[in-house]
Amino acid sequence: MAPTRAGATLPSAALLLLVPLAVSSAGLSGYFGTKSRYEEVNPHLVRDPLSLGAAAGGSRLPASCAPLQLRALLRHGTRYPTAGQIRRLGELHARLLRRPATAAAACPTAADLAAWQMWYEESLDGRLAPQGRRDMEHLARRLAARFPALFAARRRLVLASSSKHRCLQSGAAFRRGLGPSLSLGSDEVEVEVNDSLMRFFDRCAKFVALVEENDAAMCQVNAFKEGPEMRKVLEKVASALCLPVEELNADLVQVAFLTCSYELAIKNVTSPWCSLFSEEDAKVLEYLNDLKQYWKRGYGYDINSRSSCILFQDIFQHLDKAVEESKSSKPISSPLIVQVGHAETLQPLLALMGFFKDDEPLRANNYARQTHRKFRSGRIVPYAANLVFVLYHCDQVKTSKEEYQVQMLLNEKLMSFHHSNETISTYANLKDYYKDILENCHFKQECELPKVNITAIDEL
Fold first, then answer.
1. What is this structure's pTM?
2. What sign does the dihedral 147-391-310-303 (CA atoms) show?
3. 171, 260, 421, 430: which could join 340 in a potential S-S bond, CB 3.0 to 4.6 Å?
């Protein structure tokens, strides 16, 4: 099937921004974890950022089904490094600059990196990059092309965001991507801040105390940093930079690797920092990133995912309301709900729903056995990641249960539901499958700190 496309052709200059310049970084780019470009999960967007891909029509929905409501949870677009990452990169770069000029011939890699211009400033601190705005504008146009009835003129859009600047700007960029067609009064509609849903983890005392601020909770991550796989990468990088291995640590090596990823995502160039790493090194560093995501945001501890039940339940409350309005022949009050958060918003929610769960937990000592793991954060929550729930009303069905059906898309690809292994489910069956979470997961109780004085790891 030929690729389908959203909207008109972009100017060639805009397309050039997305054509990969990199050979070496392209070899590593599949292993950048949460710092991955969105194009890594949808490679067809490299050549045409408005393409819907070859499989855009393969939804298997009955022809008599019409969409009633779309709920989209987005991760912000491509961002700059945080102030902490920029400080660590500055520290590493300064060490290379202190090397005597006479050492350049003996250590060309270090000389090349010393000559690299350190252009990141701490004031950039995780802010949305220009590419991040394009990520959001293009995503809006593609979603509107996939669901034209929902995004048609005079349909109401509810747009909410985390309080973080990069999320607010992503929400504004998404709105701009839709153009003036929606009846919102003006092109610059205000984005509502909703941290209770988009940053639920900050408000969960049990998560903050026992995971976020508890070094012992990251014992697997710390063990891998000291393990044989990371030691090998550390020694190789130290050798390339002609530095004593004692002057480097896993965090500094990781910041060099992330600089390779940032330069590709933000500027679409191959950074000289990429030359320090082979594909095997990249796999090790990806695993380090995935270990952190697993133990801090994924299946490592139950509270990671249970803290997201407030968001999960809100999704179903709005779906319920749309079903009731449809049954009463009333207009759907919220046909479009778009919320912008973080990787830390999406990852726990997907874990709560049981997606990307491996038979064996990710640990410091099972790297080799996890080669084909499901839990790869770069495939799940790259920049501009999106999880979309679509509720349909279907005519000409055999039973009343089939009248309301649901699909889920992750990064614009249909997901198979656990209970059916199909990409479409009746709404009743989906609610029944998640009945326990919908009825028995209470944010306040889940997030309450234990009253008794026990060790954090025992409680987790």
1. 0.92
2. negative
3. 171
The structure tokens 């649901």 sit at 406
Residue 362 near residue 291 (C-beta atoms within 8 A): yes
CA distance 263 to 146: 31
- Rounded CA gap, 410 and 395, in Å? 26
Distance of CA 382 to the CA centre of its chain: 4
How far apart (Å, rounded) are the C-alpha atoms in residues 103 and 107? 6
User: How would you class 149 by CB atoms within 10 Å of its CB: exposed for 0-12, middle for 13-18, buried for 19 or more?
Assistant: exposed
Residue type at 135? D
**If we measure between CA atoms, which residue out of 350, 353, 408, 414 comes closest to residue 376?**
350
Question: Exposed/middle/buried for 255, CB within 10 Å: 0-12, 13-18, 19+?
Answer: buried
Q: Burial-class residue 379 by CB neighbours within 10 Å (0-12, 13-18, 19+).
A: middle
**Catalytic positions, written as ranges:** 76
Mean pLDDT by 10 residues, the chain (460 residues): 55 38 66 97 96 69 90 98 96 90 82 94 97 98 94 85 97 92 54 97 98 98 98 96 93 96 95 96 98 98 98 98 97 96 98 98 98 98 98 92 96 96 96 97 95 60
Helices (H), 264-342: 279-296, 302-306, 309-327
Please answer whether residues 116 and 93 qualify as being in contact, where contact means their C-beta atoms are separated by less than 8 angstroms.
yes
